[in-house]
Amino acid sequence: MELKPKSYIVLFTLFFAVLIGIQGYQLYNTYQLKQRDIFATVKSKLGKLHDNDKLFDDDLMSKDIARDYYIKLVKNEITAEKLKELYRANAHKTSQKLTRYVDSLFQPLGMDVILKKEILGIYFKNLEKQIAAGPITVYITNGTFRQPVELSSSEWITEKTETQKIKDSIQSREILYTFFVHRKTSFEVTNLNWILFKELTSLLLSTLFILAAFLWLFYRTIQNLRKQQKQITVLHDVVDNISHELKTPIATLKIAAKTLRKSTDESIITVIERQVNRLEQTLDPLNENLQTIDQPPVTSTELQAIFDDFQLTNSAIAFQLSPLPDGKLCLSPNDATTLFQNLMNNAVKYGATWINIFFEDQKGKLSVCIQDNGYGMEESELPYIFDKFYRIQKDNVHDTKGLGIGLFLVKKIVDRYHGQLTVTSKPNVGTTFKIQLPHALVLSSEI
């Protein structure tokens, strides 16, 4: 079963959507994989820092000192805010040193990493009582956290026994202080997106190239299919028109041939010659190899004869002609006849009731303007009207007899004389052809 063009477009859209999905999935997976590799590298280097008590706890707040402050907090000798302030002060004090150390680890790798450690909560006696709520910053590097990634989470359990003297007594008692401290360490690679972009640039560009190439190939395929479809339609029309044009002379020749079998008559021979000439005139436009050999430029008299013949055969057309150029038109007689007859006959075929032709000398070139009030053409048709066998794609115009070769020959003649041809047209208004030709007769070598 043959698919229609719309079906091809729907199938392409589906395949293209699948292709985008596959490429997008690959990009996403690669992005995730690269991100995991970066995080793994950072965690590997930062994981070793937790064992370095000298860099962190000794310089910030050692475990023994911290425990002593917790005991003071339980005894209400200090407040929770005072404890947090002590942590903040120590974090600020060591921030520059910690920043330099972290930068020394990751800047050679092209990474900007920031780090912080927080206490989420301090509990006394087996989590029975929270004596300080987090987050409390233990240490932090310079930088602003936007999307921190957890490096580690842990619990620090510390305890201390104190001997407390009972008031007004020589007796004393042992008090066990046990604390649970929930801690979390986080990091962030602040230039993560830039690193991933650089890593994925080649893959992203190749993906875009594949998608663009796929779209371009589809576009070119559709364009070629449409062009071939139009050419096939045009060729069918040409064959139909030629068949129609040949039927009458062929039928006449058959009758003449039967008549000749019975008797020889000079009038029959004249009929045969006339029909043969008609066949020749029908087929001549199909030969695009126009020859203009050793022909002088057309004279004003010859040019006037072309227009007089047209007026004689189209007396119903209002025809206006400006004064003819005197020896300034470079066209040969044959080319002039082909050019003007095709333009004028086309105007009549396509509904014109008047035709105006003007000649004007412009900056060393002769301008010829042919105007009519025919059906006119849509702007979308104009790029194709000079193609061989092309005919206007309208039902009310397409039935007009012709091979679609006239404007092709007009364009070919103008090009051979190194001229310029432009056309403007509006539906139901009319069409204007403007031709600019050099004064000198200089023919192109391309025949």
UniProtKB/TrEMBL annotation:
- Does this UniProt record's set of keywords contain Hydrolase? no
Which terms under GO biological process does the entry name?
cellular response to phosphate starvation
Keyword set includes Transmembrane helix: yes
SMART domains from the UniProt entry: HATPase_c (SM00387), HisKA (SM00388)
Q: Which reaction does it catalyse?
A: ATP + protein L-histidine = ADP + protein N-phospho-L-histidine
Record domain Histidine kinase: where = 241-441
Q: Which Pfam families match?
A: HATPase_c, HisKA
Query: Mind naming one GO cellular-component term on file for this protein?
Result: plasma membrane
* Signal sequence residues: none
Q: Which CDD domains match?
A: HATPase, HisKA
TM ranges: 200-219
Gene3D superfamilies found in the cross-reference section? 1.10.287.130, Histidine kinase-like ATPase, C-terminal domain (3.30.565.10)
Keywords assigned by UniProt? Cell membrane, Kinase, Membrane, Phosphoprotein, Transferase, Transmembrane, Transmembrane helix
State the top-level EC class.
Answer: transferase
Which PANTHER family does its entry note? HISTIDINE KINASE (PTHR45453:SF2), PHOSPHATE REGULON SENSOR PROTEIN PHOR (PTHR45453)
From the Swiss-Prot or TrEMBL record, give the protein name: histidine kinase
